[in-house]
Design brief:
Blueprint (H helix, E strand, L loop, with lengths): L3 H16 L7 H14 L5 H11 L5 H7 L12 H10 L5 H9 L3 H15 L8 H4 L9 H13 L4 H19 L9 H24 L4 H14 L2 H14 L4 H10 L8 H12 L9 H4 L1 H12 L5 H13 L3 H12 L10 H14 L4 H11 L4 H14 L4 H13 L3 H12 L2 H18 L4 H18 L4 H15 L4 H10 L5 H16 L10
Helix pairs in contact: 1-27, 1-29, 3-20, 4-5, 9-10, 10-11, 10-12, 11-12, 12-13, 12-14, 17-18, 17-19, 18-19, 19-20, 20-21, 21-22, 22-23, 23-24, 23-25, 24-25, 25-26, 25-27, 26-27, 27-28
Length: 534
C-alpha cells in the first residue's frame, strides 16, 4: 500500500495543530479574557496593586499619572507623602535659554522677581512649593558654558542673591569634578588642590547670597555640601544653624544633612537615626521628609548590596526603608535583592520586586535594567504595558540584546509583526538571546504573522533552517519543520517526526500536545513504531 495513505492523513492532522497557533477571531475579547486570567493568578496584596497600576499607567500627564498610581502595599507613609513626592518631581528647573534671555535683555531684575515668587512659595502655608530648590539646577554643572553664563549674571547683578547662588553652585560643582569620585587615598594631590581653589571661590559667594536673602535655603544646602566636600565641620555647622533658623523642615537641607551623616562621610547610623527622629516632628506639615527619615536603612541596605549580601537580612533592612518613605534608591535596591534572592535565602519574589520597580518609576525615571525587569514580568499579564517599558528601556540602552528580545515579544503579542521581526533579528545577533528569539520569530511567521499559509511557510523556512543548523536539539524547531513541510509538500517525513519526538520538551504545553497528538495518530494509523519512535 506504500506510505501515501497515511502521509496525507497525517498532513491534515499536523496542519490542524499548526492552525491552533493562529490568532483567534475577536483578538481584543480574547486578550481581555487572558489578561483577566493573568491578573487572577497574581497573589495578594499584589493583585490589586497591579490592577490599579495598569490603569494609572495609561494616564498621559506625568503628575496626574503619579497621583493616580497606587501606593506600595504595607507602607506606613504619612498622610500626603506620595502627593508631595509626586509634586516635587513634577517641578522643572528654569531652562538655561530662559536665563540667557533675561540676561541678554539686561533685565536681571525681572529674573530676580521670578525667583522671588518661587522663594515666597517655600514659606507659604497655603501654596507651599519647593520650586526654589530646583529652579537653578540647570546651572549645577562644571561646563565652560555655565562658567560664562554665571559670570555674566554676577557681573550684571552683583547684589542679586540668586546671581551669587548660581555662581557659587557652578564653582562647587567644578570643585566636585576636580576632586573626582575616587577614594581619598587614590586621588592625586593636584586634584585636591584644584578642588580647594574652586571651593575657596564658592564659599564667599554662598555667604553673600545668604547675607542678601537670609531665607534662600538652597544657599545653605550648597554651603553644607561644600563643607562635606572639603571636610570642614565648621561650614557644616554654619549651614545647619542658618537653615534651622529659617525652616527646620526644609526637605533639601534634610537630604544634604542626612548625606553628611552617612558613615562613608565620617558620620554614623546612630547620628542618622537621631536626626531622623528630629525630622519626624515635622512630618505633619512636610510629609516628604519621610524619605529622609528612612535614609539610615536605605544607606545600610545600599552598602550591603555593594558587598553582594543578597540575603533576607538585606531585604528586611531595605523593606524597612520603603515602609517609612518612598525613597527611590531604596525601592530600586530592594527590588534588586528581592528579584535575585537565592533559594537558600527564600528565593526570588518577582511580583514584589517588580512592584517596587514600578513604584520607583511612578516617582522618577528609572534605569533600562528596571524597565527590562518590568517588561519581562508584565509580558503575559499585559503585553501593551510591557511593550511601553521595553520601549523606555531601548531609549536608555538601545544596544542591549535582551531589550531587543523584549521589544520583539511585545510587538508580537500586540500583533505588530513587522516591528517584532526587526527586533527579534536584532536580538538574535547576540549568542545568549539567539535561540529563544529565533524560536519565537519562526513561530510568529509560520503561525501568526498574518500571511497566507504558503507565504508564511516560505518566510519562516530560513529561520527554521538556521535553528536546526545551530540548535539541532530544539524540539520546537523540529515541530515547525514538520508543519512547514506539510504546507509546502503536503507530506510528513517520519524522520522529522522521529527527531521532534526525540527532542520535544514535554514541559512546554505546546510541544507536549503536538507530541501526544502525533503519537496517537501514528498508532491509530498503524504506522510501524520502529519507523518513527526515537
Amino acid at each position: 500500500m506504500g506510505t501515501g495513505w497515511w502521509a496525507a492523513a497525517l498532513a491534515a492532522v499536523a496542519w490542524t495543530g499548526a492552525l491552533a497557533q493562529e490568532p483567534a477571531d475577536g483578538r481584543a475579547e480574547q486578550a481581555a479574557v487572558e489578561a483577566e486570567s493573568a491578573f487572577a493568578a497574581i497573589p495578594e496584596p499584589w493583585r490589586a496593586y497591579y490592577r490599579d497600576a495598569a490603569e494609572a499607567d495609561l494616564v498621559e500627564d506625568r503628575l496626574q499619572r503619579c497621583l493616580a498610581y497606587p501606593d506600595l502595599p504595607g507602607n506606613r507613609w504619612p498622610d500626603g507623602h506620595a502627593d508631595a513626592h509626586c509634586r516635587f518631581h513634577a517641578l522643572e528647573p528654569l531652562d538655561v535659554r530662559t536665563i540667557e534671555a533675561y540676561l541678554a535683555a539686561g533685565d536681571a531684575a525681572a529674573l530676580d522677581r521670578l525667583l522671588d515668587e518661587m522663594l515666597d512659595r517655600h514659606y507659604s502655608a497655603q501654596e507651599f512649593g519647593e520650586d526654589i530648590d530646583v529652579a537653578l539646577e540647570a546651572l549645577h554643572d562644571a561646563s565652560a558654558e555655565t562658567d560664562l553664563l554665571t559670570s555674566r549674571w554676577l557681573e550684571l547683578a552683583p547684589d542679586s542673591a540668586y546671581a551669587n547662588l548660581a555662581r557659587a553652585s557652578h564653582l562647587r560643582q567644578a570643585a566636585w569634578s576636580a576632586r573626582g569620585g575616587a577614594w581619598a587615598r587614590e586621588t592625586p594631590r593636584e586634584s585636591f588642590q584644584r578642588m580647594e581653589r574652586f571651593a575657596e571661590q564658592a564659599l564667599p559667594l554662598y555667604r553673600e547670597a545668604i547675607r542678601i536673602e537670609p531665607r534662600l535655603l538652597p544657599a545653605y544646602a550648597g554651603l553644607l555640601n561644600l563643607g562635606i566636600l572639603t571636610s570642614r565641620d565648621d561650614l557644616q555647622r554654619e549651614a545647619i544653624a542658618g537653615a534651622q533658623a529659617q525652616d527646620p523642615g526644609c526637605v533639601e537641607m534634610a537630604r544634604q544633612r542626612m548625606n553628611a551623616l552617612e558613615p562613608r562621610w565620617g558620620g554614623s547610623y546612630e547620628e542618622m537615626l537621631s536626626f531622623g527622629a528630629e525630622l519626624s516632628r515635622h512630618l505633619p506639615r512636610r510629609p516628604q521628609l519621610a524619605i529622609h527619615v528612612a535614609a539610615p536603612y536605605a544607606d545600610r541596605g545600599d552598602v550591603l548590596v555593594s558587598e553582594d549580601a543578597f540575603t533576607r537580612e538585606t531585604v528586611a533592612i531595605l523593606e524597612a526603608a520603603v515602609r517609612i518613605g518612598s525613597n527611590e534608591g531604596a525601592l530600586r535596591q530592594a527590588a534588586n535583592v528581592v528579584l535575585n534572592l537565592p533559594a537558600s535565602e527564600g528565593g526570588a519574589d518577582h511580583w514584589k520586586g517588580v512592584a517596587m520597580l514600578l513604584q520607583e518609576h511612578r516617582f522618577n525615571e528609572t534605569s533600562a535594567w528596571a524597565h527590562r525587569q518590568i517588561g519581562w514580568q508584565l509580558l503575559r499579564l499585559d503585553p501593551q504595558w510591557a511593550l511601553r517599558h521595553a520601549q523606555r528601556a531601548e531609549a536608555l540602552d538601545p544596544e542591549d540584546a535582551f531589550g531587543q528580545y523584549l521589544l520583539g515579544a511585545g510587538y508580537r503579542r500586540t500583533h505588530r509583526f513587522e516591528q517584532a521581526e526587526q527586533h527579534y533579528l536584532a536580538a538574535a545577533a547576540d549568542a545568549v538571546q539567539r535561540r529563544g528569539s529565533l524560536v519565537e520569530l519562526s513561530m510568529m511567521l509560520l503561525y501568526g504573522g498574518g500571511a497566507e499559509r504558503e507565504q508564511a511557510a516560505a518566510k519562516a523556512k530560513p529561520h527554521i533552517d538556521r535553528l536546526l543548523d545551530e540548535y539541532p536539539d530544539e524540539g520546537a524547531a523540529w515541530a515547525m519543520r514538520l508543519d512547514q513541510s506539510v504546507i509546502t509538500d503536503a507530506y510528513v517525513d517520519l524522520e522529522v517526526v522521529r527527531e521532534f519526538l526525540r527532542h520535544a520538551n514535554r514541559d512546554d504545553p505546546w510541544q507536549a500536545q503536538r507530541a501526544e497528538q502525533l503519537e496517537t495518530e501514528l498508532g491509530e494509523q498503524g504506522v510501524p513504531a520502529e519507523r518513527w519512535r526515537p
